[in-house]
Amino acid sequence: MEWNIETQKKFNLVISKIPLFHRDIAKYAVIKKAEENSKLRNSQIVEEEDVISAFFSDVPTSFYSVMVRLLEHSGFDYRKYGFPEDTAKPHSD
């Protein structure tokens, strides 16, 4: 599936900052989910919102704070897609 060029660049930057041990797993999972998200929007191009949604849906809660920092440092603005900053912090009971 085709990706928006800027989205692909940002995604590659995020992936390059993930520890090597987790990199391939994260890359595979997020690509798969992002492409599914794109298809659900009836689009043939993966856009930023597809990737951000994939990260938030497939990343374990314990890694949210790291993921949020990586997204921010890579130029992704997850807030404009309805992912509030407080979701990056696991809730305690």
What layout of secondary structure does this protein have?
Layout: E1 2-3, H1 5-17, H2 20-40, E2 45-46, H3 48-58, H4 64-73
Parallel strand pairs: 1-2
Helix pairs in contact: 2-3
Word description of this protein:
By secondary structure, the protein is mainly α. The protein has one domain. The protein has helices at 5-17, 20-40, 48-58, 64-73; strands spanning 2-3, 45-46. Helix 2 (20-40) packs across helix 3. Residues 87-93 have low confidence and may be disordered.
Give a summary of the structure in a few sentences.
With 93 residues, this protein is mainly α. It contains four helices and two strands, in the order E-H-H-E-H-H.
Shape: globular
**Any idea how many domains?**
1
Beta-strand portion reads under 5%
| Low-confidence segments | 87-93
In whole angstroms, how far apart are the ends?
A: 42 Å
